[in-house]
Design a protein that fits this description.
Blueprint (H helix, E strand, L loop, with lengths): L1 E8 L5 E8 L2 H10 L3 E7 H8 L7 H4 L5 H16 L4 H11 L3 H15 L4 H5 L8 H13 L2 H58 L5 H34 L3 H13 L3 H22 L4 H10 L4 H15 L4 H6 L6 H13 L2 H57 L1
Antiparallel strand pairs: 1-2, 1-3
Helix pairs in contact: 4-5, 4-9, 5-6, 8-9, 9-10, 9-17, 10-17, 11-12, 12-13, 12-17, 13-14, 16-17
Amino acid sequence: MAAFDYKALTLEGRSRSGVIEADSMRQARQLLREKKLTPLTLVEGQQKSQQENTPKFFGLSLMTPGLPTKSLALITRQMATLIQAGLPLEEVLQAIAQQSEDSRIKSIILAVRSKVLEGHTLAGSLAQFPRAFPNLYRATVSAGEHSGHLDKVMNRLADHTEESQQFKQKVQMAMIYPCMLILLSITMVTGLMVYVVPDVIKVFVGSGQQLPALTVGLVAISDFIAGYGWAVVLGLAIAVVCVFQLLKKDHIRLKFHRWLLNTPFIKRFSGGFNTARYASTLSILTNSGLPLVESMKISCDVLGNEYLKQQLQGATQRVQEGSSLHHALAETGYFPPMMLHMISSGEASGELDTMLERTADYQSRELQNLVTVLVGLFEPAMLLFMGVTVLLIVMAILLPILNMNQLVG
């Protein structure tokens, strides 16, 4: 039985879309007619997944996740709860699909269910939607199926997905106020420079008095923004597009990612984010029963930094040849000493799984604290920038007035 996405017309002529399960496209049309719907389009879920994997204009579809993190976290938690309750896997997927109000999510889950009914593993069924269920997700599910502890593994995966979603939401909420400040600052300063300053300065220019240097500079900036502001915006947009196009080239992207890992201040965020993600992924996979070398290979694939990924692939090779994990990671030069010490302690005590989990928690807390501090400093910095900018504009307008009063006096 397969899932079909349909668009149909009701008897009243209204358009309706949804998902229907049937053994064939012909049966799906028949079921729609029994519901008094006239089918317009009918697409099988697996065909839809293949369409999703087709590159689109400028590759935007490849950069957009198949499912929002929030939806993936909810699906994973529902799946973990129902599997732990002892329900057969096909019933679990059916229940999740019925509870979903999003037709796209429902279509994906039913398509996965149809593959499971055909005899495929859950991990193999999820693989037809690689953007909805990333490599880490599928590898963890596969480990749970092979170990016979899918319920425990899904619970751990649900915890990880929810924590990732909460952290992402926390960062997004923290960035709302700073982004509003930036937008307000740009709008206010641009408005003053384009509409207010020129009219005020005309009065002083008409009086024939010599303008202070600050006022002359403000006039020059105002004229530039009014005359060439559009060109600056266009130039920035073109520059951003060119940078993205250049970063598609492997050798340029590799150099840029290496620069991110070695530049002061920036490396704290780039390196911190990637090492935290690597530690978290490695912890989940090893705790799920995957061998260390295989877990390291998969953990490399989920990293966003190509240069660090290359270094960790070398570390994986060294571990496969017999090196210890903490020595292999230390040779990359990008993992903090505390993390390496904890991994070394875990290897020595035979509790590497536990230590990797603690290391992942430690790295995640460090990254969250760093982001919190940065956002906390950003808000007063933007307020200070707004205050100084407005002060300079006011002084540039008041100085000619004070000079005029002194001449009159």
